[in-house]
Amino acid sequence: MTFHAKFSGYADPALHAAGLYIGGKWQSGSGITVLDPSTGNLLAEVADAAIEDAQRAVDAADAAAAGWRATPARQRSEILRRWYQLMTQHAEELATLIALENGKALADARGEVAYAAEFFRWYAEEATRIPGEFRHTPSGSHNILVDHEPIGIAVLITPWNFPAAMATRKIGPALAAGCTVILKPASETPLTAYAMARLGEEAGVPPGVVNVLTTSNPGGITNAMLADPRVRKLSFTGSTGVGRVLLAEAAKSVVSCSMELGGNAPFIVFDDADLEVALDGAMIAKMRNAGEACTAANRFYVQAGIHDAFVAGLTARMKSLKIGPGYDPETQCGPMITQNAVRKIDRLVSEALAAGARATTGGKPLTENGYFYPPTVLENVPVNASIAREEIFGPVAPVYKFESDDEAIRLANNTEYGLAAYIYSRDLKRAMKVGKRIETGMLGINRGLMSDPAAPFGGVKQSGLGREGGVTGILEFMEPKYFAVDY
Ligand code: NAD
Q1: How far apart are CA 467 and CA 474, in angstroms?
Q2: What residue ranges define each of the domains in the chain, with the CATH number in brackets?
Q3: How far is residue 318's CA from residue 322's CA, in Å, rounded to a whole number?
């Protein structure tokens, strides 16, 4: 394990960890390089798990399973609560680590740590409220008693765009439910996951209850774990493409799947919207994490009467953002995660420009070191351009003009995705009526941010299966068991 000078200068040494975490033991190793996306320089090198490590992780999760399942809910709850407190105490170090390896602006990284920690607090509370059910059969033949049991060992796979929150959103409910887990974080951002595992140890998570593996062979490792009959759950957050592959793999051993996949959120602004409120919301929905969010507004549909004022206002706000490394406290728009991410954004924007769109600001990658793309606004974008179909995952706001409510609904639903959507109108009745017809799992009305640990997060169509957070999130890690009872 190696930490390079810049990393060591910024991060709290107590949170330095880069080896596999299996059965409560740290196993050093190397093979995966972690880069600073604002320079392309090496930050650290972490262990690269092989198939045998994955098998050992399943053994460790299995060895801990019976004890954790039998641990009283109150005790599980208190461990999660301590983990929440430790994350809060170490919020600044964790935020710096996220800003370093992911590149997001510190303000966004701080927001993520607070959001991530809240999943532990929420599930500390939910752990003690696991529901059951008692009913009489309509025929009077017997009684129906429904218990909820922990589903079993869970494999948790997370993306690089929220390295802390995507992990806690899975670990929190899994541990609250009584499951043991193996977390496989994205290899671009493993340091945050390992730092959190350190805090989990300090919070009193017993050995083997949480195991963490980084690997350059995610397919091989995951397939090996899914083939093990002791693994009963796969909870995945990432792209729809990888989600499809994993669903097929999980089908072979009929493993229960929760899938949080890609998005293509429409952001609809009606003529009667409060322009300033809509612009504030647009900046949050587009620019949180520099656009690298599954809920990011990907298509701005703006009604003809307010269109020009919205484009002018959005352009002015986007132009004023300060670009720089995430860990520079002045930065408002950090780098993209990789050079490939910049290339993809460049392709989508170039195709839109060639098809007749106009950039009112930005429009091509920055040439300095690091993986930077500037905040960009496009107007006059053809509604069938590839930028309207694919996730941009960057700081680019394509704006499309519409006339009628029906047209806005038709355009918004014209996608295989259905994760998030936004509506701006002063007329709540209109917003609710349109909202009912939008195919989405989540809808912000006059709000650019909807994520909350107490709310069910997830999508419809090809944006996923299941919900994380809220009161039902814990049930993704439980199986109902029906007792037919005569007495
Ligand atoms: P990705 O699908 O490339 O990778 C996600 C994770 O899957 C990573 O840990 C990666 O190592 C792993 N992976 C890749 N191939 C695998 C395989 N064959 N088997 C097992 N694991 C494999 O996604 P990404 O680029 O890391 O993240 C961006 C995507 O995630 C976007 O599409 C975004 O919308 C989505 N996302 C969705 C949500 C949500 O809650 N719906 C939240 C955040 C991100």
Answers
A1: 9
A2: 9-261+463-485 (3.40.605.10), 265-452 (3.40.309.10)
A3: 9
Structure tokens at 468: 């994380």
Positions annotated as catalytic residues are: 260, 294
Tokens 């710096």 sit on residue: 96
Tens-digit pLDDT profile for residues 151-207: 999 999 999 999 999 999 999 999 999 999 999 999 999 999 999 999 999 999 999
194 alpha carbon – ligand 1 mean position (Å): 18
Q: How many CA atoms lie within 13 A of 389 on its CB side?
A: 7
**239 Cα–ligand 1 center, Å:** 4
Ligand 1: lining residues by beta carbon, under 6 Å: 157-162, 166, 184, 186-187, 218-219, 222, 237-239, 242, 245-246, 260-263, 294, 391, 419, 459, 464
Nearest CA-CA partner of 426 in 275, 212, 214, 221: 275
Residue type, 408: A
Question: How would you class 199 by CB atoms within 10 Å of its CB: exposed for 0-12, middle for 13-18, buried for 19 or more?
Answer: buried
Residues in contact with 348: Cβ distance below 8 Å, sequence separation at least 6, in sequence order: 385, 386, 387, 390, 392, 396
pLDDT in tens, 50-60: 999 999 999 99
Query: Is the model's pLDDT at 1 over the cut of 50?
Result: no
From residue 186, give the alpha-carbon distance in Å to each of 162, 255, 473: 10, 21, 22
Distance CA 21, CA 392 (A): 34
Query: How many Cβ atoms from other residues are within 10 Å of residue 206's Cβ?
Result: 15
